[in-house]
């Protein structure tokens, strides 16, 4: 092994001045060493579990034997111990065993953030049944599609009345599917089965491993659906092997048995149900589970429960920053927050005000087979893609040149892709090992599966996973999320990143949040920039228009400065705090379709002015923006 290997792998023989010498030649090498060291420690744990043939439910049952009285889930000031959750999971398994389902067949659960989600999932896992995590906010066509696409044999729904009404609305369309209802008396409703009564009628006897004989690491453990911000939700297959990829993420940032994780994102989401729940079980730790995110109760929950790690998604922390400052803002035991979607414009504000030691922004995809994470506290970064990590990490990642509008990689005269140099941006991809190149990412969607694959990237025959994300690579090999391909638009021959413009706009104190997108203007090429803005409470629109114009002029190139502004009473986001812009794009800048205040940019008067129907018609006729 050469000296470089010894430094990177942390083995003996290269210390002191040797490390200093390498740091002089490669200033970023320390970050690689940190990542590899923590990654190797975390993977050693999950590798051992897999070498022993264990699945997530095996680890849970070991947790029960080791610490039966320890709190597994704390929910609404009640402690649900490992032992109690196991008893409930055994009841679920006993009841489900009567259905005659085979290992790998699917049961869908549509349950809110509550302990019953956890023990229902674990109970079905005891039988080797795959569990589809259905988003409890979807309705009608999206709900029917979700249930059919994952081929659910049974549906179990939670006690929330909104969930019941959503299912009742489409009951005739899924008439062949038995529906069990938790928390409700449905004896008088012939189309439903009373879950609670049936569960009480069976014994919580421990289910033997023989009940799930036949489960392999390629067997589906669950299905987690894409958000559905574009098109219908798509069921991503989470195999038992992938479960340990999720679990490794929490181990990577140091979560162990003594730690307490605070989870407010929905459990049907990758961050909470994947990294959070599966990571908690693998570490044998405790999860504080909240039904919904509440900015007002957030820090009270964290302090009261001695939380050491926090999960986040999307724009969650923006709501915490909007709270009035409090003397206890930085009083807590939090070691790190972990998640994805934290925009750079509030990163330092949040970390400074609330005294957060570490922000671990992750990058990955529910469909992917690996991910990366910022373990160096580099502001705005979501991980690293360096030559050294590509050499020693199991699945190499690269940034390649891409047309941001078409999403197609740029290929040279020989048909191969070109890597982006440091300081550049492009499409992030990851290698797919030969053993997994035939595996599907989505259930039943061949077209989407193929869209996720790039072939013959650097050499004939190689295969890579396409994340579909634009990423910037800095000089130290840290990566920064720029935009989803498709969210980027082209104006005046230039490509515009919606995230970049939104970050600049949100830098104004008067703006709570910004959602940027491109709209079509007749007679022009590309799309004109438009920003839907949510202002802070008490801000008068007329008083800040000139400030917005000046701020954009000073901080954005001309082609990226938004031509239209739309002021919202509230920001439209998904349940996982992702901004929704599909309807905004369709409505464009048409005052006859939009009731929100609309403004247009006038460079001759260096300000934004109200967009009336008359001016809208003039713009459509002139088309000379």
Automatic annotation (TrEMBL):
It is an enzyme of class 6 (ligase). It holds the Pfam family AMP-binding. Residues 60-387 form the AMP-dependent synthetase/ligase domain. Its EC number is 6.2.1.3. It catalyses: tetracosanoate + ATP + CoA = tetracosanoyl-CoA + AMP + diphosphate; a very long-chain fatty acid + ATP + CoA = a very long-chain fatty acyl-CoA + AMP + diphosphate. The keyword Lipid metabolism applies. Belongs to the ATP-dependent AMP-binding enzyme family. This is long-chain-fatty-acid--CoA ligase. It comes from Sinanodonta woodiana (Chinese pond mussel).
């Amino acid at each position: 092994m050469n000296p470089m290997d010894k430094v990177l792998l942390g083995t003996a023989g290269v210390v002191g001045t040797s490390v200093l010498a390498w740091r002089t030649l490669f200033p970023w090498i320390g970050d690689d060493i940190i990542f590899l060291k923590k990654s190797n420690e975390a993977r050693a744990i999950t590798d051992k579990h897999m070498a022993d043939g264990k699945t997530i439910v095996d680890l849970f049952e070991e947790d029960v034997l080791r610490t039966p009285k320890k709190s597994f889930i704390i929910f609404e000031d009640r402690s649900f111990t490992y032992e109690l959750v196991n008893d409930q999971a055994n009841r679920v398994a006993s009841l489900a065993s009567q259905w005659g389902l085979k290992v790998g067949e699917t049961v869908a659960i549509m349950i809110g953030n509550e302990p019953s989600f956890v023990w229902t999932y674990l109970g079905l896992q005891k039988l080797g049944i795959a569990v589809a995590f259905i988003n409890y906010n979807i309705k009608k066509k999206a709900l029917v599609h979700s249930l059919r696409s994952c081929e659910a044999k049974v549906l179990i729904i939670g006690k929330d009345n909104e969930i019941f009404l959503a299912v009742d609305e489409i009951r005739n369309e899924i008439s062949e599917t038995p529906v069990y209802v938790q928390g409700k008396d449905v004896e008088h409703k012939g189309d439903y089965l009373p879950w609670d009564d049936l569960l009480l009628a069976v014994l919580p006897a421990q289910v033997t491993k023989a009940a799930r004989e036949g489960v392999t690491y390629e067997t589906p453990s669950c299905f987690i659906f894409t958000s559905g911000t574009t098109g219908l939700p798509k069921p991503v297959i989470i195999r038992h092997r992938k479960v340990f990829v999720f679990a490794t993420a929490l181990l990577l940032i140091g979560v162990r048995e003594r730690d307490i994780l605070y989870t407010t994102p929905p459990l049907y989401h990758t961050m909470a149900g994947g990294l959070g729940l599966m990571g908690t079980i693998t570490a044998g730790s405790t999860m504080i589970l909240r039904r919904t995110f509440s900015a007002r109760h957030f820090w009270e929950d964290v302090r009261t429960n001695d939380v050491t790690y926090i999960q986040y998604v999307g724009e969650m922390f923006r709501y915490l920053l909007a709270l009035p400052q409090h003397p206890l803002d930085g009083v807590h035991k939090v070691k790190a927050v972990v998640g994805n979607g934290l925009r750079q414009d509030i990163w330092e504000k949040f970390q400074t005000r609330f005294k957060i030691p570490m922000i671990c922004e992750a990058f990955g995809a529910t469909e992917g087979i690996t991910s990366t994470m910022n373990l160096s506290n580099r502001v705005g970064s979501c991980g690293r893609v360096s030559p050294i990590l590509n050499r020693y990490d199991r699945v190499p990642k690269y940034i390649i040149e891409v047309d941001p509008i078409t999403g197609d990689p740029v290929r040279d005269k020989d048909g191969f892709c070109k890597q982006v140099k440091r300081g550049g941006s492009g499409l992030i991809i990851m290698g797919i090992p030969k053993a997994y190149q035939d595996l599907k990412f989505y259930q039943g969607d061949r077209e989407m599966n193929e869209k996720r694959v790039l072939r013959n990237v650097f050499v004939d025959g190689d295969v890579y996973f396409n994340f579909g994300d634009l990423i910037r690579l800095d000089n130290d090999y840290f990566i920064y999320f720029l935009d989803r391909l498709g969210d980027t638009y082209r104006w005046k021959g230039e490509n515009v990143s919606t995230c970049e413009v939104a970050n600049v706009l949100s830098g104004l104190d008067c703006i709570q949040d910004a959602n940027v997108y491109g709209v079509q203007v007749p007679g022009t090429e590309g799309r004109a920039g438009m920003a839907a803005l949510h202002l802070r409470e008490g801000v008068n629109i007329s008083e800040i228009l000139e400030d917005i114009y000046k701020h954009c002029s000073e901080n954005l190139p001309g082609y990226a400065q938004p031509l239209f502004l739309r002021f919202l009473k509230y920001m439209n986001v998904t349940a996982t705090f992702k901004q929704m812009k599909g309807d905004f794009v369709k409505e464009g800048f048409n005052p006859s379709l939009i009731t929100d205040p609309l403004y247009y940019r006038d460079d001759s008067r260096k300000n934004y002015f109200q967009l009336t129907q008359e001016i809208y018609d003039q713009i459509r006729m002139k088309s000379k923006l």
